[in-house]
Amino acid sequence: MKYDPIKKSLGAVFNKTPLLRKTFYHLLNLLLLRSWHIRRALRKLKHTLPEEPEILDAGSGFGQYDYTMALQFPSCRITAVDVKKEQIDDCNTFFRQIGKDNRVKFIVGDLTRYVQPDTFDLALSVDVMEHIEDDITVFKNITKSLKKGGVLLISTPSDQGGSDVHDDHDESFIDEHVRNGYAITDIENKLKKAGFTTIESRYTYGKPGNISWIISMKWPIIMANKSKAFLLLLPFYYLITYPFSFILNVMDLYMKHPSGTGLIVKCTK
């Protein structure tokens, strides 16, 4: 079961016009439960940040969270860093087309080397750290790049079945993962070593979220890998299944989970 080729194919389709790309972002926000948790965490931070916050997106991908933050924090300035030049170029083109390139800048960079001392009020890392072997160096670089009192918000798979790995014989759902997920104690210890003083961690993708993920992501990707023709049937599939996923996502968002396949971590310098 391969996730990245499907993601790349969909990205190529929705990258054709700004309207299609905005539609793609909205679809990702509807379907990806991690986006629900991240947007809720950002809303909670809104009144604690400066009026014109400097934000680092550490591993920007398609740029959907930069679009969200640009709308949520109208006076912010965002520096988005990623190693994939093609995605960086696409994002810069899109944000220039919608007139937000004066506040949102995408640059090619390696997070194990990227440091801008005492620059940012907020750093965001969504499903990035499981791709990077030398995660402690990245955490240290982000700590140095944050101002005193700055916040790092992380979304990443946990070791409770993250990446759809449940035992030693399973393969990661994502081709590029170097680890299948973090234990809470493991990631908290690494963040403490990196210099963060206050760390709050909680599980996401508990029982409701995991069922929603199977319905809304896992099954469609399995079917799309078997036949690309299934992509044409996706709207009809989601018309039937999404109401159930929506209810499950709401439950996951507001419930406290004793375990889950995802983690949200908020830490302060």
Write structural notes for this entry.
This protein is of the alpha/beta class and 269 residues long. It has one domain: Vaccinia Virus protein VP39 (Rossmann fold). 47% of the residues lie in helices and 18% in strands. The chain has a seven-stranded mixed β-sheet, with helices on both faces. Helix 6 links the parallel strand 4 and strand 5. The longest helix has 25 residues, at 230-254. The chain is globular, with a radius of gyration of 18 Å. Mean pLDDT is 90; it is low at 165-170.
CATH superfamily, by name, is Vaccinia Virus protein VP39
Amino-to-carboxy terminus distance: 39 Å
Name the strands of the widest sheet in spatial order: 3-2-1-4-5-7-6
Average pLDDT reading: 90
What is the third-level CATH name, the topology?
A: Rossmann fold
Do you know the CATH architecture?
3-Layer(aba) Sandwich
The helicity comes to 40-55%
Overall geometry comes to: globular
Number of domains: 1
- Beta-strand percent range: 15-25%
Ranges where pLDDT stays below 50 over 5 or more residues in a row are: 165-170
